[in-house]
Amino acid sequence: MGRLENKIALITGAARGIGESIARVFHREGAMVILSDILDEKGKALAQELGEMACYTHLDVADENDWRLVYQKLLLEFGGLDILVNNAGITGFLESKGPVDAENPDMDSFEQVMRVNLNGTVLGCKYAIPLMKRKGNGSIINISSRSGLVGIPGAAAYAASKAAVRNHTKSVALLCAEKRYNIRCNSIHPAAIMTPMWDAMLGEGEMREKIIKSVEAGIPLGHFGEPEDVAYAALYLASEESKYVTGIELNVDGGILAGSEARPE
Protein backbone atom coordinates (compact mmCIF):
# COMPACT_ATOMS: atom_id res chain seq x y z
CA MET A 1 0.00 0.00 0.00
CA GLY A 2 1.04 3.58 -0.64
CA ARG A 3 1.74 5.95 2.23
CA LEU A 4 -1.45 7.93 1.45
CA GLU A 5 -3.75 5.06 0.52
CA ASN A 6 -7.46 5.93 0.91
CA LYS A 7 -6.68 9.60 1.62
CA ILE A 8 -8.44 12.55 -0.05
CA ALA A 9 -6.00 15.39 -0.79
CA LEU A 10 -6.66 18.89 -2.09
CA ILE A 11 -3.67 20.81 -3.48
CA THR A 12 -3.88 24.48 -4.44
CA GLY A 13 -1.67 25.94 -7.14
CA ALA A 14 -1.29 22.41 -8.48
CA ALA A 15 -0.94 23.13 -12.20
CA ARG A 16 2.83 23.63 -12.17
CA GLY A 17 5.95 23.92 -10.04
CA ILE A 18 5.90 22.68 -6.45
CA GLY A 19 2.14 22.07 -6.52
CA GLU A 20 2.42 19.84 -9.57
CA SER A 21 5.22 17.83 -7.98
CA ILE A 22 3.23 17.38 -4.75
CA ALA A 23 0.24 16.20 -6.78
CA ARG A 24 2.37 13.64 -8.61
CA VAL A 25 3.97 12.28 -5.44
CA PHE A 26 0.69 12.12 -3.52
CA HIS A 27 -1.02 10.37 -6.44
CA ARG A 28 1.82 7.87 -6.69
CA GLU A 29 1.42 7.14 -2.97
CA GLY A 30 -2.25 6.23 -3.37
CA ALA A 31 -4.15 9.44 -2.56
CA MET A 32 -7.22 10.67 -4.40
CA VAL A 33 -5.81 13.99 -5.58
CA ILE A 34 -7.97 17.05 -6.25
CA LEU A 35 -5.84 19.51 -8.18
CA SER A 36 -6.87 23.17 -8.08
CA ASP A 37 -5.55 26.32 -9.71
CA ILE A 38 -6.52 29.30 -11.87
CA LEU A 39 -4.43 27.87 -14.73
CA ASP A 40 -7.29 25.71 -15.89
CA GLU A 41 -5.81 24.26 -19.08
CA LYS A 42 -2.59 23.16 -17.35
CA GLY A 43 -4.50 21.81 -14.38
CA LYS A 44 -6.93 19.82 -16.51
CA ALA A 45 -4.08 18.40 -18.59
CA LEU A 46 -2.22 17.25 -15.48
CA ALA A 47 -5.33 15.61 -14.01
CA GLN A 48 -5.94 13.83 -17.32
CA GLU A 49 -2.32 12.65 -17.40
CA LEU A 50 -2.55 11.27 -13.86
CA GLY A 51 -5.78 9.53 -14.79
CA GLU A 52 -7.76 7.54 -12.24
CA MET A 53 -7.72 8.95 -8.71
CA ALA A 54 -7.16 12.52 -9.91
CA CYS A 55 -9.46 15.38 -10.87
CA TYR A 56 -9.25 19.12 -11.40
CA THR A 57 -11.33 22.02 -10.11
CA HIS A 58 -10.93 25.75 -10.62
CA LEU A 59 -9.99 27.62 -7.44
CA ASP A 60 -8.88 31.22 -6.98
CA VAL A 61 -7.68 30.93 -3.39
CA ALA A 62 -8.26 34.65 -2.73
CA ASP A 63 -11.98 34.28 -3.57
CA GLU A 64 -14.05 32.93 -0.70
CA ASN A 65 -16.92 32.04 -3.01
CA ASP A 66 -14.58 29.70 -4.90
CA TRP A 67 -13.70 28.05 -1.59
CA ARG A 68 -17.39 27.59 -0.80
CA LEU A 69 -17.88 25.82 -4.13
CA VAL A 70 -14.87 23.56 -3.55
CA TYR A 71 -16.13 22.83 -0.03
CA GLN A 72 -19.46 21.65 -1.44
CA LYS A 73 -17.73 19.52 -4.05
CA LEU A 74 -15.54 17.81 -1.45
CA LEU A 75 -18.50 17.28 0.88
CA LEU A 76 -20.84 15.85 -1.76
CA GLU A 77 -18.35 13.78 -3.76
CA PHE A 78 -15.90 12.62 -1.10
CA GLY A 79 -17.60 13.11 2.25
CA GLY A 80 -14.77 15.20 3.64
CA LEU A 81 -11.03 15.83 3.32
CA ASP A 82 -7.91 14.21 4.78
CA ILE A 83 -5.11 16.44 3.46
CA LEU A 84 -4.91 20.07 2.37
CA VAL A 85 -1.80 21.61 0.84
CA ASN A 86 -2.08 25.40 0.73
CA ASN A 87 0.51 25.90 -1.99
CA ALA A 88 -0.86 28.63 -4.29
CA GLY A 89 1.14 31.84 -4.08
CA ILE A 90 2.54 34.82 -5.98
CA THR A 91 5.63 37.00 -5.58
CA GLY A 92 4.01 40.15 -6.95
CA PHE A 93 6.78 40.69 -9.51
CA LEU A 94 4.74 39.44 -12.46
CA GLU A 95 1.22 39.44 -11.07
CA SER A 96 0.94 43.05 -9.91
CA LYS A 97 1.93 46.48 -11.20
CA GLY A 98 4.33 46.90 -8.25
CA PRO A 99 6.60 47.91 -6.78
CA VAL A 100 6.51 45.60 -3.78
CA ASP A 101 9.81 46.64 -2.16
CA ALA A 102 10.11 47.89 1.42
CA GLU A 103 10.72 51.57 0.60
CA ASN A 104 8.07 52.38 -2.01
CA PRO A 105 5.41 49.69 -1.92
CA ASP A 106 2.40 50.14 -4.15
CA MET A 107 -0.34 49.29 -1.66
CA ASP A 108 -2.72 47.76 -4.20
CA SER A 109 0.07 45.41 -5.24
CA PHE A 110 1.00 44.72 -1.62
CA GLU A 111 -2.60 43.84 -0.79
CA GLN A 112 -2.89 41.63 -3.87
CA VAL A 113 0.06 39.53 -2.71
CA MET A 114 -1.40 39.32 0.79
CA ARG A 115 -4.83 38.30 -0.53
CA VAL A 116 -3.42 35.36 -2.45
CA ASN A 117 -0.66 34.18 -0.12
CA LEU A 118 -2.13 34.90 3.32
CA ASN A 119 -5.88 35.16 2.82
CA GLY A 120 -5.80 32.15 0.51
CA THR A 121 -4.13 30.10 3.23
CA VAL A 122 -6.50 31.36 5.95
CA LEU A 123 -9.50 30.48 3.79
CA GLY A 124 -8.05 27.07 3.02
CA CYS A 125 -7.70 26.30 6.71
CA LYS A 126 -11.18 27.68 7.43
CA TYR A 127 -12.87 25.34 4.95
CA ALA A 128 -10.60 22.33 5.50
CA ILE A 129 -11.16 22.07 9.25
CA PRO A 130 -14.88 21.19 9.12
CA LEU A 131 -14.26 18.76 6.26
CA MET A 132 -11.49 17.04 8.22
CA LYS A 133 -13.61 16.91 11.38
CA ARG A 134 -16.06 14.78 9.42
CA LYS A 135 -13.25 12.28 8.73
CA GLY A 136 -12.00 12.33 12.32
CA ASN A 137 -8.48 13.52 11.48
CA GLY A 138 -6.48 15.49 8.96
CA SER A 139 -3.25 17.18 7.96
CA ILE A 140 -2.97 20.78 6.75
CA ILE A 141 0.31 21.70 5.09
CA ASN A 142 0.98 25.38 4.41
CA ILE A 143 3.72 26.23 1.95
CA SER A 144 5.51 29.25 3.37
CA SER A 145 9.06 30.17 2.34
CA ARG A 146 12.52 31.00 3.57
CA SER A 147 11.22 34.54 3.00
CA GLY A 148 8.82 33.95 5.87
CA LEU A 149 11.77 33.69 8.25
CA VAL A 150 14.09 36.44 6.97
CA GLY A 151 13.54 39.89 5.49
CA ILE A 152 13.53 40.43 1.72
CA PRO A 153 13.90 44.18 1.04
CA GLY A 154 12.95 43.95 -2.63
CA ALA A 155 9.97 41.67 -2.04
CA ALA A 156 8.50 42.99 1.20
CA ALA A 157 4.95 41.95 0.37
CA TYR A 158 5.95 38.36 -0.35
CA ALA A 159 8.09 38.15 2.79
CA ALA A 160 5.36 39.61 4.99
CA SER A 161 2.74 37.27 3.58
CA LYS A 162 4.90 34.18 4.07
CA ALA A 163 5.81 35.22 7.61
CA ALA A 164 2.10 35.50 8.35
CA VAL A 165 1.51 32.04 6.86
CA ARG A 166 4.16 30.65 9.20
CA ASN A 167 2.47 32.14 12.26
CA HIS A 168 -1.08 31.31 11.19
CA THR A 169 0.03 27.71 10.84
CA LYS A 170 0.90 27.65 14.54
CA SER A 171 -2.43 29.25 15.49
CA VAL A 172 -4.32 26.60 13.52
CA ALA A 173 -2.19 23.81 15.00
CA LEU A 174 -2.86 24.97 18.57
CA LEU A 175 -6.57 25.54 18.00
CA CYS A 176 -7.06 22.05 16.58
CA ALA A 177 -5.00 20.52 19.38
CA GLU A 178 -6.92 22.39 22.10
CA LYS A 179 -10.25 21.30 20.64
CA ARG A 180 -9.04 17.71 20.16
CA TYR A 181 -9.90 17.70 16.47
CA ASN A 182 -7.02 15.34 15.63
CA ILE A 183 -6.03 17.76 12.83
CA ARG A 184 -2.38 18.68 12.45
CA CYS A 185 -1.08 21.84 10.77
CA ASN A 186 2.53 22.42 9.71
CA SER A 187 4.43 24.73 7.38
CA ILE A 188 7.16 24.04 4.84
CA HIS A 189 9.76 26.71 4.05
CA PRO A 190 11.38 26.14 0.67
CA ALA A 191 14.25 28.22 -0.66
CA ALA A 192 16.13 28.15 -3.97
CA ILE A 193 13.78 25.59 -5.53
CA MET A 194 13.93 25.78 -9.33
CA THR A 195 10.35 26.58 -10.38
CA PRO A 196 8.71 29.02 -12.85
CA MET A 197 8.53 31.54 -9.97
CA TRP A 198 12.26 32.14 -10.45
CA ASP A 199 11.98 33.04 -14.14
CA ALA A 200 11.38 36.75 -13.53
CA MET A 201 14.55 36.96 -11.42
CA LEU A 202 16.83 34.76 -13.51
CA GLY A 203 16.20 36.13 -16.99
CA GLU A 204 17.46 34.26 -20.05
CA GLY A 205 20.63 33.15 -21.83
CA GLU A 206 24.07 33.85 -20.44
CA MET A 207 22.72 36.22 -17.80
CA ARG A 208 20.47 33.46 -16.48
CA GLU A 209 23.41 31.08 -16.10
CA LYS A 210 25.46 33.76 -14.37
CA ILE A 211 22.69 34.52 -11.86
CA ILE A 212 22.11 30.81 -11.18
CA LYS A 213 25.80 30.33 -10.37
CA SER A 214 25.73 33.39 -8.12
CA VAL A 215 22.73 32.08 -6.20
CA GLU A 216 24.17 28.59 -5.90
CA ALA A 217 27.37 30.03 -4.42
CA GLY A 218 25.30 31.03 -1.37
CA ILE A 219 23.64 27.63 -0.93
CA PRO A 220 25.59 25.36 1.45
CA LEU A 221 24.72 22.24 -0.60
CA GLY A 222 25.88 24.09 -3.70
CA HIS A 223 22.89 23.78 -6.02
CA PHE A 224 19.22 24.64 -6.53
CA GLY A 225 16.65 22.24 -5.17
CA GLU A 226 13.94 20.53 -7.21
CA PRO A 227 10.17 20.71 -6.67
CA GLU A 228 10.21 17.03 -5.72
CA ASP A 229 12.39 17.87 -2.71
CA VAL A 230 9.47 19.88 -1.32
CA ALA A 231 6.97 17.23 -2.38
CA TYR A 232 8.66 14.56 -0.28
CA ALA A 233 8.64 16.87 2.74
CA ALA A 234 4.91 17.37 2.19
CA LEU A 235 4.46 13.61 1.87
CA TYR A 236 5.97 13.10 5.32
CA LEU A 237 3.69 15.73 6.88
CA ALA A 238 0.64 14.31 5.09
CA SER A 239 1.28 10.72 6.15
CA GLU A 240 0.70 8.92 9.44
CA GLU A 241 4.47 8.93 9.94
CA SER A 242 4.13 12.49 11.27
CA LYS A 243 1.12 11.82 13.52
CA TYR A 244 2.91 13.45 16.50
CA VAL A 245 4.08 16.50 14.54
CA THR A 246 2.11 19.74 14.54
CA GLY A 247 2.94 23.44 14.47
CA ILE A 248 6.44 22.95 13.06
CA GLU A 249 8.28 24.73 10.27
CA LEU A 250 10.20 22.38 8.01
CA ASN A 251 12.98 24.05 6.01
CA VAL A 252 13.77 22.66 2.57
CA ASP A 253 16.56 25.01 1.56
CA GLY A 254 19.87 23.29 0.98
CA GLY A 255 21.13 24.59 4.33
CA ILE A 256 20.61 28.31 3.66
CA LEU A 257 18.87 29.02 6.95
CA ALA A 258 21.57 27.18 8.86
CA GLY A 259 23.81 30.15 8.02
CA SER A 260 25.11 30.32 4.47
CA GLU A 261 28.00 32.58 5.48
CA ALA A 262 29.43 29.61 7.36
CA ARG A 263 29.51 27.52 4.18
CA PRO A 264 32.74 25.49 4.08
CA GLU A 265 34.99 26.19 1.10
Describe the structure.
- It holds the Pfam family adh_short_C2.
- GO terms for molecular function: glucose 1-dehydrogenase [NAD(P)+] activity.
- Belongs to the short-chain dehydrogenases/reductases (SDR) family.
- This is Glucose 1-dehydrogenase.
- It is an enzyme of class 1 (oxidoreductase).
- By secondary structure, the chain is of the alpha/beta class.
- It has a single domain, classed as Rossmann fold, CATH 3.40.50.720.
- Helices cover 45% and strands 14% of the residues.
- It contains eight helices and seven strands; from the N terminus they run βαβαβαβαβαβαααβ.
- The chain has helices spanning 17-28, 40-50, 64-78, 107-135, 156-178, 199-202, 205-216, 227-238; strands at 8-11, 32-37, 54-58, 83-86, 138-143, 183-190, 249-252.
- Strands 3-2-1-4-5-6-7 form a seven-stranded parallel sheet, with helices on both faces.
- Strand 2, helix 2 and strand 3 (54-58) form a beta-alpha-beta unit.
- Helix 1 (17-28) crosses helix 8 (227-238), helix 3 (64-78) packs parallel to helix 4 and helix 4 (107-135) runs parallel beside helix 5.
- The longest helix has 29 residues, at 107-135.
- It is globular, with a radius of gyration of 18 Å.
- The model has no long low-confidence stretch (mean pLDDT 94).
Which secondary structure elements does this structure contain, and how are they paired or packed?
Blueprint: E1 8-11, H1 17-28, E2 32-37, H2 40-50, E3 54-58, H3 64-78, E4 83-86, H4 107-135, E5 138-143, H5 156-178, E6 183-190, H6 199-202, H7 205-216, H8 227-238, E7 249-252
Helix pairs in contact: 1-8, 3-4, 4-5
